[in-house]
Amino acid sequence: MNLLRHWLSEERGALPTVVVRTAAVTVLSAALCYGAYWIFDLHYWGEPLAMILPVLAPIVTAPWFIHVQTSANIRLRAIQTALREREAQLVREIEERTAAESRAVAERERADTERERAEEASRAKSRFLSNVSHEIRTPLNSIAGFSELLHTEPLDDRVKAEYAGHIHDASRHLLSLINDVLDLARIEAGKVDLSAEELDAAPTVERAVAMVEQSARASQVSLRIELAAGALPLHADRRMLIQMLLNLLSNAVKYTPPGGSATVSGRKTADGTVELSVADTGPGMAADQIERMLRPFERGGLHEEAGGGEQAGGTGLGLSLVKSLMEMHGGQLLVESELGRGTRATLAFPKRAGG
Q1: What is this structure's pTM?
Q2: Could you write out the DSSP letters of every residue in 143-181?
Q3: What is the CA radius of gyration of the chain?
Q4: How much is the pLDDT for 170?
Q5: Contact, 70 vs 62, CB < 8 A?
Q6: In this structure, which of 103, 112, 193, 204 has its CB flanked by the most CB atoms within 10 Å?
Q7: Quick one: pLDDT at residue 96?
Q8: CB atoms < 10 A from the CB of 69, how many?
Q9: What is the Cα–Cα distance from 9 to 24, expressed in whole angstroms?
């Protein structure tokens, strides 16, 4: 019985309701007929057809009512099913369109980012070509000018020695510029071999400081070395270590005003990392400028930005080259700076496995 009721309610919709209503109408009709005969004092059995016809009328018309309501209910269910399917289809289409629009927006953002990077790289290379052409032209003009004077002018030995010294300094500066460009090109091409060895950092630091001491003296910048007591063992490429220290020291001397100082310090941290730092008392850098200075072909107008009014020279490869060399050692270059408070650049060499 329950199964039949379930089938009727699920498959025929309002069919049970129609049957119940038809039965109720039949009973009500019979009751009304009986009441009419009673009220008007009609003989109950006098005219039996008058009693039977009102009862038979709902019974005869009930199938038609059942058919009409059942058909309407089936059509309504079909319409509801079609609407639900259409609604689900619209939801899927909206989700697909939303996903497609999201992908399109992501693609446009990625394309915009790549274009901005390409444009920035192009601008950086243009600045580099402008900087390096100026930097190379300056020592070349110095070499050509003093060489011509030595060749054409009668000079005494003191003046000749002075001019020869200028030519020597200019040629060394030119060689340094070219070496920086070539080193960075070889690093990017993966053609630089790391010849790491166990060494004591202290003698290497002292040697690098001695190499820039004359330049620091000419710029009236004092150099100091503050190393921890005892040996400072380090696993690194000796030539690259000197090159990195020279770049950092040259920047410190270049950007420190007369009367300032540059300090090289070294220590071993608790986790075994060896840190060599070069700190200066120059104008410093803002946080956004530090990130820019670590990219290739960028040079910093530190004096200009700090209010000194002078644009410092250079190819813009120094910090980028140091960063690349440190990454080859598995370490990192850490730069801390604040406008008006100076800059500290730290070479952080990780502890060697098993060391």
Answers
A1: 0.55
A2: HHHHHHHHHHS---HHHHHHHHHHHHHHHHHHHHHHHHH
A3: 47
A4: 80
A5: no
A6: 204
A7: 92
A8: 17
A9: 19
> What's the token pair of residue 216?
């620091």
Q: Which two tokens stand for residue 345?
A: 């650049």
Q: What does DSSP say about strands 196-200 and 261-268: parallel, antiparallel, or unpaired? A: unpaired
* CA–CA separation, 335 and 291 (whole Å): 9
b/e map 184-209, b = 16+ CB within 10 Å: beebeeeebeeebeebebbebbeebb
DSSP string, 109-150: HHHHHHHHHHHHHHHHHHHHHHHHHHHHHHHHHHHHHHHHHH
35 contacts 64 by C-beta, under 8 angstroms: no
Positions of the chain with pLDDT lower than 70, given as ranges: 1-66, 127-128, 130-132, 134-135, 295-317, 353-355
Yes or no: say if 251 and 333 are a contact pair by the CB < 8 Å rule.
no
Tell me how far apart the alpha carbons of residues 247 and 318 are, in angstroms, rounded to a whole number: 6
Adjacency order of strands within the sheet including 274-280: 222-227, 261-268, 274-280, 342-349, 332-338
Helix (H) and strand (E) counts in the chain: 9, 7
- N-terminal to C-terminal alpha carbon distance within the chain: 86
Domains and CATH numbers, the chain: 2-93 (no CATH), 125-188 (1.10.287.130), 198-349 (3.30.565.10)
Torsion 172-177-181-183 (CA) sign: positive
